[in-house]
Amino acid sequence: MTSTTYSKSKIKQGVSVFLWTVKSNLSTLVVYLSILAFFIIINWVICAGTKTAFNSNVMLAETFLTAMVIGLIVSIKSFSYLHDKRQTDMTGALPVSRRTLFFSRLISSTVISGIPMLIIYLVINIFFPNNQSMVLPDNSFFVTLNVIIYLFSNISLFGLLSICCGKTSDKIVSFIVLNLLTPFAVYFLTILPASLLMGYSVNLHPDFLLFLSPAFAFAGTNPVYWVIFSAVCLLLSFVLIKNRRAESADSGFAYKLPLIAIKVLVSFSVGIVSAFMFIVTIENNNDYLIFWSGMIIGSLTAYIIIQIIFAHGFTGFLKGLIPYGAMLICFAVLFSSLHFGWFGFETYVPDVNDIKSVSFTASNPIYINGVNITAHEVYDKKVIEDTVKAHKKIISIESFKDRKMLERTKVNYLYEKNNESDIKELGTDALNFNVTYTLKNGIKIQRNYSNFTTYGDASTNVPFLQSEEYTVNSNPLFVCDEKYFIFVEVEKLEDEDFATYGGIQRESKTAKKLIRTIKEDYKKYGFSSSSSGYLLTFMTSNYGEKKKDGEVSLYPLASVNVPSNYSKTLNLIKSLP
Amino acid sequence: MIEIKNLSKSFGDVKALCNLNLDVEEGAVFGLVGSNGAGKSTLLRVINGVFKADGGETLIDGESTFENQKIKDKCFFIPDYPYFSNSSTIANTAFFYRNVYSGWDEEYFNTLCSTFPVDKNRKIINMSKGMQRQSALILALSTRPKYLFLDEIFDGLDPVVRKLVKKLIITNVTDNNMSVVIASHNLRELEDICDYIGLLHKGGIILEKELDDLKLGIHKVQIAFNSEVSDDVFNNLEIVNKMKSGNLYTLTIRGAQKDFMAELESLNPVLLEALPLTLEEVFINEMEGAGYDINNIL
Predict the structure, then answer these.
(1) Which of B187, B211, B235 is the last residue of a domain?
(2) How many helices (H) and strands (E) does chain A have?
(3) Average pLDDT of chain A?
(4) Interface test with B, best of A3, A7, A20, A104 (most B CBs within 10 A)
(5) Is the pLDDT of residue B285 over 90?
(6) Are residues B276 and B181 in the same domain?
(7) Which chain B positions have a beta carbon within 8 Å of A21's beta carbon?
(8) Residue A501 reports pLDDT greater than 50
């Protein structure tokens, strides 16, 4: 008989579990590698046949999608020991700690789904070097590495959900729900204040919503974030796995909080989406009634469905409605606080004596490399006084206060977040009043009011909006450094129809030249509503940098409907080749 | 030694174990009996660290079992439905256990593989229920456990294999001082192998005794007389159960056999015979004596 002295280290046990898991997934691994090999062959055949360069992005997308599917299948299998009573008996009695077991399986899932990607990367680079028809960019290794990071973040989340859920089906539903509905919930929750509060606007980072959905992480978000995300998932898993109730296998959730959170997330997301859809589609004078009808119908339907899915029937149905009720009450409190202005956001205008400076911006501040290029400060006492007066006038306009919910938002978020609606046109009636006060104590207060022309004559109501101080200071053409205008599009109006413009794009040098002549003409002639038929749209790059392949992502910054008396500008346009 | 102190475990509103106390000596074979839902399997799962107890303690060799790898390394638990993955064979599962259990005995494993009529390279899930249990037992015994926990192990085994299993358990107990806890409904199987018996009912042990004590303390006797006798003649004996058919009496008597046989001899019967009591009969009598409705317990 061998010694029974306990001598197995955690690492050795972890390696054993790892090998055991890999071994039991060998068939999946073979299928996976076969699919990837098939993709290589197909891509190679297409490249060779068409004599075109290999598109690494297509290959990576195919590889990633396959890796995601395989990763999730392997994860389901690997973590099924938490959801199957018979497996729980077997693994629970093993002399391997719960943490070692869990993390060994998590690593094996990542390796099984990630390593083939590296193998494919090596195969491509060895057998199809850059001088062949298959060409991978220099950074393909890092792209592959990033994809593995995204994959790991998904597997980490899946692992965490495996701990929280009692059934595999619940885990899959939770994973889908979290990935699909979290961005919706956060997005609509973010725009809700803009729909209820005059003067409030939102400015979301383009990648913001992607950060809420690991399944879509590969679409371009920062891998460092996903490393942190994975670390948080692993930390939570580390804490929760040890005391997880094994008896929850094949029954309800092991931890109640995630169950409640997911049910609330589902009902809230569906509720708020349907609420906004209701007020967009149903014509009614009472926006709030329509909004709440949509909210209750959507959220209750979603809650009933998710409750039945998780409970596999109507067990504990009434008790399960408590979190729904709590969610609805919390949302009602939030909604009321915004709607009834409990915090005085809508009525607050700083005292002139407390203000150090004001700045007027394009409706959404434009950031390039983290710098707000539209930011500028006006310290003139008179401008500050006029600004405060204008601000007070705006919040007292009755027709503006009575606007419908969606009309209060600066941009119609439901349809599009169209940057072009933010373009400031030179010489047109002021549509927006976007002001940032910098108080003497350093606090910044920002208010954005939009679309005045729809609600009365802005020039009559708020003359300041027609003043030179405001018009010039709120136009990026006059405020932004000319280095940011890297492109200009020159279009000729035909038959008064803007849609028929045939644009000619010009490089940075022409853009800067045109800006200088416009400013000279403005000094000489001031604003004019007479149109020459030429529309200039000045653009910047989204991130201020050219990509390696020479392409830039253009972002419209300002536009000019060139007045007919701007002779110098018109001459320059006509002289362009 | 296994010590269980005030152990409690609930599943929602259902109390599976309620302040349960139990000691199992080293080298003992402990039979755990009880009706469906009495808590037998739950108790085994808690002892083996599959479930975490809500209250109380489960100690093996003085240490708590939950998340204690050192203790779990000395134990092996075969549940009522042992799990094997789709690709598991005895050979590849042995590969895993070899690296996980410090007591793995390769030589013994090979011996057991040749002792049981199973193919170690065949997929276990394709085997019959009885063969699967044999596979589980081969793997379990190969880890040379100090404590073996078996849940309905005899279920599905043919009489020959059942005998073999009992023999192997007894050999391991005798040679290696292994302690065994067997949960079963089958009192007849336990009778052959157990030193102690515990009766579990509604999450608590209501009876725990050494098997010999149980059996020695109660006896069945058949006694016949030439003519009818009065029931009062048995008044000096501790009669647990009495059945009469003409002049033939079948008595279940508590006490030392020597004493009551002498008493009965003095009544000049034409027939006097002491019959062996099955464990089931002992239990029924004990429990009825204790005021339980045994039909609702076993």
Answers:
(1) B211
(2) 19, 10
(3) 79
(4) A20
(5) no
(6) no
(7) none
(8) no
Burial of A417 (0-12, 13-18, 19+ CB in 10 A): middle
| Domain that includes residue A512, residue range | 481-575
* Domain coverage including residue B254: 217-296
Query: Of B46, B41, B123, which Cα lies nearest the Cα of B85?
Result: B123
Higher pLDDT, A121 or A56: A121
Are A264 and A233 part of one and the same domain? Answer: no
> What 3 state SS string does A369-387 have?
CCEECCCCCECCHHHHHHH
By DSSP bridging, strand B179-183 and strand B29-34 are parallel
Q: How many domains does chain B have?
A: 2
Same-domain status, A19 and A162: yes
> How far does the CA of residue B102 sit from the closest CA of chain A (Å)?
6
Q: How far apart are CA A135 and CA A2, in angstroms?
A: 58
Q: pLDDT tens digits, residue range A464-491?
A: 777 778 877 877 888 888 788 878 888 8
Cα separation of A104 and A79, whole Å?
A: 11
Q: Is A460 touching B (CB cutoff 8 A)? A: no
Is the domain of A424 the same as that of A555?
no
Share above pLDDT 90 across residues of chain A, in percent, rounded to a whole number: 23
| Global pTM value | 0.78
CA distance A247 to chain B (A): 7
A362-379 as b/e, with b when 16 or more CB fall inside 10 Å? bbbbbbbeeeebbebebe
First to last CA, chain A: 95
Of the candidates B69, B99, B108, the beta carbon closest to that of A6 is on B69
Pick from B164, B188, B211: which residue ends a domain? B211
